[in-house]
Amino acid sequence: MINSTHTKDNKSKDPPSKLTRTDRRYWKRKKAWLRRKAAWARKLDQAAKLSTNSNTNSKRNKHRPTRSPRSSPKSTQSTDKNNKHKQHQPATLKPSSLSLSQDLVGNHNATFLMNNIKQYAATKRVRFVQHSRSASRLPTDAEGSFKDIRYVDSNRVIQTFRDMTVTQCTMEIVSLLTLKNQPYIGNILQILHDDTKNHLIGLSMQRYEQTLKQYTHQNRLTPHQKLNLIRQMLLSVQCIHRHGIAHRDISEVNFMVDRGTLLADGSVASLVYLIDFGKATFTRPEDVKRWWIQPNGHDNSTTQYEDEVIPADATALDSWCAQLPWISIKPDHGYRCYRSIQTLPRNRTDHGVLPWLVDPMAEDMYSITVLIWKVFTESAPWRGVIDTDLPALRDMVNSDEAIEFNVKRDVPGVLSRELLLMCLKFAPEDRATATTLLDWIDTPHISAGLLEEWGSYHGVTSSRNKRRKMPSSK
Fold this sequence. Notes:
Elements: H1 21-60, E1 93-95, H2 106-123, E2 127-130, H3 133-136, E3 142-143, E4 147-151, E5 156-161, H4 166-178, E6 188-194, E7 199-206, E8 210-211, H5 212-218, H6 223-242, E9 245-246, E10 255-262, E11 268-274, E12 281-282, H7 285-291, E13 309-311, H8 314-322, H9 360-377, H10 390-397, H11 400-410, H12 414-421, H13 434-441, H14 444-456, H15 458-469
Parallel strand pairs: 2-6
Antiparallel strand pairs: 1-13, 3-4, 4-5, 5-7, 6-7, 8-10, 9-12, 10-11
Helix pairs in contact: 6-9, 6-13, 7-8
């Protein structure tokens, strides 16, 4: 006879009275998981209620006349140049929560945007291709936050957009078109669209061997390989900044790597390509105005991109362009270990527009420098703190003193520390540009010194990393 107290349905959710240390950890994690599960259930219920209410309201308001939204006055900008990153964002800016089919003001704007992209693509010799249903039947080889990746053959990969706003789709495609045939940038081949619905479906790109994350994890890199890799990463950032684009999502999964020729030490060089411009932004007024898409005020929570901020009307657009390259954004919840204190969220629910402006190019430099740290030390920056531990992460980057303390503690080598501290700064205006950093690295005695440091202290950093991962004997 089976004891009912041990069946799956009647298993107790409360811990027993006597627990070992391992048991206490287990029950602590289980309770946290149950709380998260309950929170997600509440969110799903709320979403279902909102969806029902929106459908009901749309039927009621079907024949009611619509009113044009009122425009808010321009905000007064601070004249203190040293405090640019503390300026308040204009009140007319609001987050976009619009679907691909609803993100335009009427069908006229959708047609105008599509024609504009087609004309621009023609100048770059990139063809628009009707999306084939047979392509969508291919198995999904990889999934991103907003894309499905399918490998067509050894030379081509298809990326289909999933739950992306039309602003994101436009930014992704236009950025790749602008950077077409530029070195160290992913090569766009075709644009996939649906003529019947006037939709952008996705794009076709050149296929590369592996991501930077896979490359660094699967290979023991020599100092020459590390320096070659880091130079190309900086050259890719320099390229996009010169073309008036900030990436805003730099990480080890957004760089692709192919194998190249031999280096001076006989090791195989890498060829690096920057991809994924869905979160990118323009830093020049003429580009912002050309590709700006005015929201129509509808909401569709199923395709909401809560981290997106765009000008709500023409007045807000003028204010946005006047303050460039500084922009209004929300806290960045993606790859938090690569984000500065300006964009690092305070907690998991921090999604409000930041009360200061952010320089996206300076944020790129901060992010690429943290990635450089990870490449040449072969260990996780910030002592391997997980990006969900926001209080600990914020404590490490909340001032120049805290950053310098952590760098000097974890990174051996005078030149290696100097390399990192040129860009890991609290204030955006204090961070070096990609050009400045490249000029410094290419100085003969600097590059020779870096190669020597990276060759001599590899065992030190590896042993430190292993000791951190070893469980306590107590």
